[in-house]
């Protein structure tokens, strides 16, 4: 199935709607107990002329992905012939009930939306230290010359959404380059963990006791002092925010 190019204004409306639904989730989840949530918009340059758009909500997911997808996409696909018999998005999800990622393709065929399991094992989500996430990789692309227009509108939308829930972190990337990253109060906790991790790492590195170092390496399940800081961070962060998890954690 060939990938079509949607009108940039249509892409903007779809992305804004996804962002608003993500933020609505996070606002509800933040009531009572604050958890770390991050909404990311990433443009992936797959060829010289186009970008693929991926939107990910780290920290919240849903059990009924199809119903959520209908809320976002139905008014668009039902009103525009460009969506007829097409692949709309690839959806990656992991919720609190499962320990593995589910990857599904969202199709619009025979005037209905449906989800089909994606057989590709490629992991499309890079932020592995979250227990839950939901990600939409839109299958239709942004034209290279419209990137600045698109980014300007989406950044303005993000600034507005920040005023609704100041606990949510927003990040915007073009490939691996971060273009936007707002400060939130929970960033301070991360910095405190980092300061403590660096201090403890220095204790291990500067110790003259080979036995002490070996015991520390064994406890942290690392092979050398260069891995100590990361290992300590992995232990510290979940103590502060239960929404964090890392590969191999129990």
List keywords for this structure.
single chain, 250 residues, nine-stranded mixed beta sheet, 6 helices, 9 strands
Please, could you describe this protein's structure?
It is a single chain. By secondary structure, this protein is of the alpha+beta class. It is 39% helix and 25% strand. It is built from six helices and nine strands, in the order H-E-E-H-E-E-E-E-E-H-E-E-H-H-H. The chain has helices at residues 8-29, 65-79, 147-162, 186-206, 210-220, 228-240; strands spanning 37-47, 50-58, 86-94, 102-109, 112-117, 133-138, 142-143, 168-174, 177-181. Strands 1, 2, 3, 4, 5, 6, 7, 8 and 9 form a nine-stranded mixed beta sheet that branches. A hairpin with a 2-residue loop joins strand 4 (102-109) and strand 5 (112-117).
Question: TL;DR of this structure?
Answer:
The chain has 250 residues and is α+β, with helices and mostly antiparallel strands.
Task: Set out the fold topology.
Elements: H1 8-29, E1 37-47, E2 50-58, H2 65-79, E3 86-94, E4 102-109, E5 112-117, E6 133-138, E7 142-143, H3 147-162, E8 168-174, E9 177-181, H4 186-206, H5 210-220, H6 228-240
Helix pairs in contact: 1-3, 4-6
Low-confidence stretches: none
What is the typical, i.e. mean, pLDDT? Answer: 84
Q: Give the topology string: H per helix, E per strand.
A: HEEHEEEEEHEEHHH
Please outline the major beta sheet: 9 strands, mixed
- Gap between N and C termini, in Å? 41 Å
How many beta-strand segments?
A: 9
- SS content category: alpha+beta
């Amino acid at each position: 199935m060939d990938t079509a190019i949607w009108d940039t204004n249509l892409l903007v409306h779809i992305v804004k709607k996804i962002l608003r639904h993500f933020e609505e989730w996070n606002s509800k989840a933040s009531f009572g107990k604050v958890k770390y949530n991050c909404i990311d918009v990433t443009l992936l340059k797959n060829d010289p002329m186009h970008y693929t758009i991926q939107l990910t909500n780290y920290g919240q997911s849903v059990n009924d992905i199809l119903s959520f997808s209908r809320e976002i996409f139905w008014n668009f696909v039902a009103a525009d012939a460009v969506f007829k018999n097409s692949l709309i998005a690839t959806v990656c999800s992991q919720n609190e009930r499962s320990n593995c990622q589910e990857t599904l393709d969202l199709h619009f065929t025979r005037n209905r939306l449906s989800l089909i399991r994606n057989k590709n094992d490629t992991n499309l989500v890079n932020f592995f230290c979250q227990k839950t996430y939901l990600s939409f990789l839109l299958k239709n692309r942004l034209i290279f010359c419209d990137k600045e227009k698109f980014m300007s509108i989406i950044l303005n939308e993000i600034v507005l959404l920040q005023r609704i829930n100041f606990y949510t972190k927003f990040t915007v990337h073009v490939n691996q380059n971060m273009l936007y990253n707002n400060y939130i109060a929970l960033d301070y906790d991360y910095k405190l963990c980092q300061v403590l991790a660096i201090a403890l790492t220095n204790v291990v590195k500067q110790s003259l006791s080979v036995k002490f170092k070996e015991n520390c390496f064994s406890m942290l399940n690392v092979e050398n002092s260069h891995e100590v800081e990361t290992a300590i961070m992995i232990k510290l962060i979940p103590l502060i925010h239960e929404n964090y998890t890392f590969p191999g954690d129990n």
